[in-house]
Amino acid sequence: MDLSSLQPAAVWRHFSTLCRIPRASGNEGALRDELATWARARGLGVKVDAVGNLVLSKPASPGREDRPGVVLQGHLDMVCQKNGGSTHDFARDPIRPVLRDGWVTAGDTTLGADNGIGVALALAALEDGSLEHPALEVLLTVDEESGMHGALGLKPDAVAGRLLLNLDTEEWGELYIGCAGSADVIAGAVLPVAPPPDGLHAVTVRLSGLAGGHSGIDIHRGRGNAIKLLARLLHALAATDADFRLAALEGGTAHNALPREAVATLLLADPARLQAQAGDLAARLRGELPIEDGNVRIDIAPESTPPAVALTRDASRALSSLLKDLPYGVRAMSERMPGVVETSNNIGELRLDAGRLHINAMARSLRAESLRALSAEITGLFSRAGLETRVQGDGPEWTPAPDSKLLALARSVYRRAFGGEAHVQVIHAGLECGVFNALWPDMDMISFGPAIQGAHSPGERVEAASVERAWRLLMGILAAIPAA
Which of 68, 402, 412, 466 is the most buried (most CB within 10 A)? Predict the structure, then answer.
């Protein structure tokens, strides 16, 4: 789709560039080079740091030199998810956006509005010649979605501004002043395998049809996790089939996305019993899960070539029991921020092949002590199952500052522009502001963005009208920055 018919034209033109150039986490180099070339051609300052973050800069408008500098911030990478059967290659193919009922989406793949629209807003602000503004820096980080590695690699002198507008939240009309911290609990092992005994039948079991979503923003919606739901079936099977063996298991592709599909290769004595158990579970799930997961299904097909090896009977049972016991979903709601999730866990990735097991669970919390406790609980489950475990920090929490002067200014601009009050919020997802708050403790910062739904899943979409409103808010804030 040609996005040039949408407004603001400059924002959508930049977003089209981001759709055209593949930008999976760790593969942002081509896009970074394109943006650096674009900036140099317009006389803007360009810096690339040692880890690949890009900083573009523009002097203050005449008469605005006494204003504190403002950093506009977003990340270059996107979560790459696609529906089963899609042939899209995220390393090569462009994203193909379409407009449906006022929303821009990509259908079978993620759109990359998270955080492509935020990047596009910042770039459009740099090139707007009519805006009166303080000194501007646009900080575009890399590798945010897979661990905030770009932000974590920043040096204290990366930017000079001391006001920061993060453009990476997804509920229009809300101004964010805090976020959850997170940690990945990663486990692995080589489990015992053996040639399966004669007389067992090999089948493939596929659980699909879930909506998926963002493991922070959508965790409270009660959506199913394909890994956990398939584990329910495996655990039921282990209780009724003495010879059950697990040969392979795969689910999820990103630590911060809710897995939509999971598939297992099994060897068992009675496929008919499994078929009945799968049908019963699918029917129960359609009653348990929210309406967006109503297409959940469990398909079973015979394997024409049985696997040469599978986990032993005891190892198969132990793994199915472990997966059943792993926590998933909301652990606690915040007492200080009603309606906000305080602590949660997602099982985002699992791979079992020829006995080699990898699991990635992502814990989040607004409270550092709760994050440590949940991470320790998950680590304990993994360790007792004999897995080698490590905890890898993803990002610190961003402690709210409700007396922020930048927040007060943004609320005033919002009130004048839209005739109502913006909601002040804390987000359960991780934002790079947590890293920035630790790196630059004196920096005043808030976060806002347009309405984005389904981030981190195919069908991700952004409301076109809210992009225009986010642009108006951004322009209003920059114009209203007072003298220091």
Answer: 466
**pTM of the predicted model, to two decimals?**
0.83
Q: CA-to-CA distance for 311 and 316, rounded, in angstroms?
A: 6
Q: Are 73 and 167 in contact (CB under 8 A)?
A: yes
**Domains in the chain, number:** 2
115 upstream amide cis, omega within 30 of 0: yes
- In the chain, how many H helices and how many E strands? 11, 25
How far is it between the farthest Cα atoms of the chain? 84
The two structure tokens encoding residue 484: 């220091």
- pLDDT for 293-348, tens place per residue? 999 999 999 998 999 999 999 999 999 999 999 999 999 999 888 889 999 999 99
* 5 contacts 120 by C-beta, under 8 angstroms: no
Contact between 237 and 266 under an 8 Å Cβ cutoff? The reply is yes
Residue 264 in tokens: 């297992």
Residue 468 annotated in active site:
no
Q: How far apart are CA 80 and CA 452, in angstroms?
A: 16
Is the bond preceding 307 in cis, omega lying within 30 degrees of 0? Answer: no
Pairing of strands 174-179, 423-427: parallel
| Domain of residue 334, CATH code | 3.30.70.360
Three-state DSSP state, 312: coil
Q: Which two tokens stand for residue 275?
A: 């078929």
Are both 391 and 403 inside the same structural domain?
A: no
Task: Specify which residues 55 forms β-bridges with.
Answer: 47, 139
CATH of the domain at 471: 3.40.630.10
Q: What are the φ/ψ torsions at residue 436 (nearest 5 degrees)?
A: -65, -35
Is residue 163 over pLDDT 80?
A: yes
**Separation between Cα atoms, residue 206 and residue 197, nearest integer Å:** 24
**198 flagged as catalytic:** no
Tell me the two tokens of residue 60.
Answer: 């203050």
Question: Which residues make beta-bridge pairs with 74?
Answer: 140
User: C-alpha angle with apex 355: 354 to 361, nearest 5 degrees?
Assistant: 120
Q: Which of 28, 77, 293, 463 is catalytic?
A: 77
Beta strands in 226-355, from DSSP E residues, in sequence order = 245-251, 257-258, 262-268, 297-302, 310-311, 329-333, 341-353
Q: Is the distance from CB of 456 to CB of 417 less than 8 angstroms?
A: no
**Burial (0-12, 13-18, 19+ Cβ within 10 Å), 96:** middle
Query: In which domain, by residue range, is 460 found?
Result: 3-179+397-480
Residues 163 and 261 in one domain: no
